[in-house]
Amino acid sequence: MLGLFKNLIRRREIEGEGVRELSSDYLEEDLPPAKRSTIQSHLSKCGPCQAFVDTLASTISILASLPRVSPPASFKRSILNRTRRNEGRSFS
Ligand SMILES: [Zn+2]
To answer: Are 15 and 42 spatial neighbours (Cβ–Cβ below 8 Å)?
Structure first.
């Protein structure tokens, strides 16, 4: 019973991870429709991923509003990594 519960949690984490990896492509509307709707349905039932995408979206729009500055891939990756570290802490 407990094992099953753990499996469910682990599966959910992997799914969330995938959503976050794809979130910048999602925000840039650079995903095939099937993938996009998968992410949308995950976001509709997952608060943490929703918050993550919201944060990423506002960060990108702030940076995009600055002249001649666009968020480099390494910057997006550092947001992804930071969020992942924070989550690790809250799970421990
Ligand atoms: Zn999620």
So the answer is: yes
Q: How far apart are the first and last CA of the chain?
A: 21
Residues ≥6 apart with Cβ < 8 Å to 74: none
* Ligand 1 center from residue 73 Cα (angstroms): 22
For 61, the enclosing helix (H) or strand (E) is helix 47-65
Statement: residue 80 has pLDDT above 70: yes
Q: What distance in angstroms lies between residue 46's CA and the mean position of ligand 1's atoms?
A: 5
- Closest alpha carbon to 85 in 22, 77, 10, 54: 77
